[in-house]
Specification:
single chain, 299 residues, alpha/beta, 8-stranded mixed beta sheet
């Protein structure tokens, strides 16, 4: 009897061990992953954005582009040039949206009567840059107009973009304030005024090329700060954040009143996202890790 009982107990123990082993080896079911929400592609997915070189060459726009495209399903087709050339693309029907930084040229474009609006959303500062030795004493001045007057008085070389860009337009306005030009407006032939002096050189180039020439000649020039910091040269920032150096960026959706086939909905989607909280946070963070400061500021 005892032997039979022992055999039964041993059999039960063996069966329990077998079931325990099977339970240990059973696969554990993983929780189902949350479905990834995909943004549907818009009916007209491509936005032709005509923009100034500073937001592109500084790296800001390439940095923002994938965030915008992921959030909206649109694709940006970007061309960059000076503000004058960028706006001209909208006049000829080759752009759906503008991102530029020359208030006078933007207002002239809007004044052509196609029910368009200018949306300002961020700013940075122009800077006067030049050789570290600073022969004109620009670093001791309090405004851009005073700095330009000191450059002229010393006969130190100055390189102008001369390309109808927002930076060029700003530069001409400073020369007017400094008393070296009577007007910053184009003449009847569409030409911008020039300072007739051997120390002044207008090169008709973008910001990067202008900085290269100024570096080679150890000359002064006006630049937006973001592009200057992203550029590799030996020049120094000698004046920044003066009252007359603020550089405001704006967007304009090209109206269907101007061109019926323009991607107006796409342009509005871009403007809406660029003025969103997500974009504001990205803009505020851009440049901080590399330069210790933001390169652009939200309005």
């Amino acid at each position: 009897m005892k032997k039979s009982l022992s055999l039964v107990l041993m059999l039960l123990l063996a069966l329990s061990l077998i079931f325990a082993g099977c339970a240990a080896e059973a696969p554990v079911e993983e929780p189902a992953e949350e479905p990834v929400e995909e943004v549907a592609a818009p009916e007209n997915p491509v936005i032709r954005l005509s923009t100034t070189t500073s937001v592109n060459d500084s790296g800001l726009l390439p940095y923002l582009q994938p965030y915008f495209e992921a959030a909206t399903g649109y694709t940006l087709e970007i061309t960059s040039a000076g503000t004058g050339a960028a706006i001209e693309k909208a006049r000829t029907g080759d752009a759906d949206c503008l991102l530029v930084h020359s208030k006078s040229q933007e207002e002239a474009f809007i004044g052509e009567g196609f029910n368009e609006e200018r949306v300002s959303f961020m700013y940075n500062y122009f800077v006067v840059v030049g050789p570290e030795a600073d022969p004109a004493g620009v670093s001791a001045t309090a405004s851009a107009a005073d700095a330009f007057a000191a450059i002229a008085a010393s006969g130190s070389p100055f390189i102008s973009r001369g390309d109808a860009s927002g930076t060029h337009t700003k530069e001409l306005g400073i020369w007017v304030t400094a008393g070296l030009l009577e007007s910053a407006d184009r003449d009847a032939d569409g030409n911008y005024p020039l300072i007739e002096a051997d120390w002044y050189q207008s090169v008709g180039q973008g910001m990067g090329a202008t900085l290269n020439i100024a570096d080679e000649q150890q000359a002064y020039t006006l630049s937006d700060k973001a592009t200057f910091l992203a550029h590799d040269d030996s020049l120094s920032i000698l004046l920044e954040q003066a009252d007359d150096m603020k550089n405001t960026y704006s967007m304009i959706a090209v109206s269907t009143d101007r061109f019926a086939d323009v991607n107006y909905d796409g342009a509005l989607a871009f403007i809406e996202w660029m003025t969103s909280e997500e974009a504001a946070e990205l803009i505020a963070a851009y440049g901080v890790a590399e330069y210790g400061e933001a390169l652009f500021y939200n309005l």
